[in-house]
């Protein structure tokens, strides 16, 4: 299975700063500082573009962005972000995927959509087993070096900066890796030519639902992904509840179907919980714990 090691400066252009600033309590408009030229004149003009009552907050955002970049430069000296991916033969059978012979159960929406659209499941975007033709699915995981968690432990503010940046770097590396997979490794979109802002709004073909996303809410499927990916190759281990360590890690699926889209499974009934637990081969009470937020 291919692994990719990225240096910080290679993935930092792919950071979606909106989510970084959100973690620090800033509205999206303040994240625009990341798009401003770094000269004093441009920064002053950006600051002046805010109403007087918002300029103190904008100045805070400006300072936070400056300090975040200092941290990135420091991390770039000896921290890497590692990714692993695998392209697998797969088919869908009802609400399950069969990936290289491994059953990967999924959940289907049960709450009607306001627009009357169908009840979706990720398996809808994979060729059915009955077709007799194998489809392809991508699996991925990304993680920042665990050494990052040791930086600035004696400085709570800088340590929190490292933590929030690490989360963004894992996501940024995944964005860059997914771009490479679409264009080269899988190659279903070889002529794709999008700007990074275009990538942030998902103009590309296909989707990349991560475990914990609304369409893939069961954290316990990390155990299945680990069987198929061997995430320990890039230093990711799982707790008994399926949580990933290092904490700045992400894993999930890559689908190429042109009509694939994100959705929320939402609330499910007891009957679907029982069916899902049966398909997962796990006790219903265990699955109830993993899907607590989705139960009616």
UniProtKB/TrEMBL annotation:
Query: What are the record's GO terms for cellular component?
Result: cytosol
Root EC class: transferase
- Look up the record and give one Gene Ontology term from the biological process aspect: methylation
SUPFAM superfamilies hit by this protein: Methionine synthase activation domain-like
Asked if the record carries the keyword Ribonucleoprotein, the reply is no
Question: Which Pfam families does the protein's record reference?
Answer: Met_synt_B12
Which keywords belong to this entry?
Methyltransferase, Transferase
Q: What is its EC number?
A: 2.1.1.13
Question: Which part of the chain is the AdoMet activation domain?
Answer: 1-296
What name has this protein been given in UniProt? 5-methyltetrahydrofolate--homocysteine methyltransferase
Species for this entry: Bacteroides eggerthii
């Amino acid at each position: 299975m291919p692994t990719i090691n990225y240096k910080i400066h290679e993935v930092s252009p792919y950071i979606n700063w909106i989510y970084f600033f959100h973690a620090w309590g800033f509205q999206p408009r303040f994240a625009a500082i990341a798009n401003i030229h770094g000269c004093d004149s441009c920064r002053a003009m950006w600051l002046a573009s805010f109403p007087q009552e918002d300029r103190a907050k904008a100045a805070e955002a400006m300072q936070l962005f400056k300090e975040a970049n200092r941290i990135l430069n420091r991390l770039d000296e000896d921290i890497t972000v590692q990714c692993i991916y695998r392209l697998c033969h797969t088919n869908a059978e009802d609400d399950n995927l069969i990936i290289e012979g491994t059953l990967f159960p999924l959940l289907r929406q049960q709450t009607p959509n306001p627009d009357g659209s169908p009840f979706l499941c990720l398996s809808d975007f994979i060729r059915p087993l009955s077709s007799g033709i194998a489809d392809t699915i991508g699996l991925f995981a990304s993680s920042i070096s665990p050494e990052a968690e040791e930086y600035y432990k004696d400085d709570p503010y800088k340590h929190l900066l490292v933590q929030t940046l690490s989360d963004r770097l894992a996501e940024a590396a995944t964005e860059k890796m997914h771009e490479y997979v679409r264009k080269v490794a899988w190659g279903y979109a070889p002529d794709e030519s999008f700007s990074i802002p275009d990538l942030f709004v998902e103009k590309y073909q296909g989707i990349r639902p991560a475990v914990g996303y609304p369409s893939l809410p069961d954290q316990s499927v990390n155990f299945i992904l680990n069987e198929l990916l061997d995430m320990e190759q890039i230093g990711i281990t799982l707790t008994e509840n399926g949580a990933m360590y290092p904490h700045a890690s992400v894993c999930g699926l890559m689908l190429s179907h042109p009509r694939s889209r994100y959705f929320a499974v939402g609330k499910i009934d007891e009957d679907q919980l029982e069916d899902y637990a049966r398909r997962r081969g796990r006790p219903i009470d265990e699955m109830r714990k993993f899907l607590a937020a989705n139960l009616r």
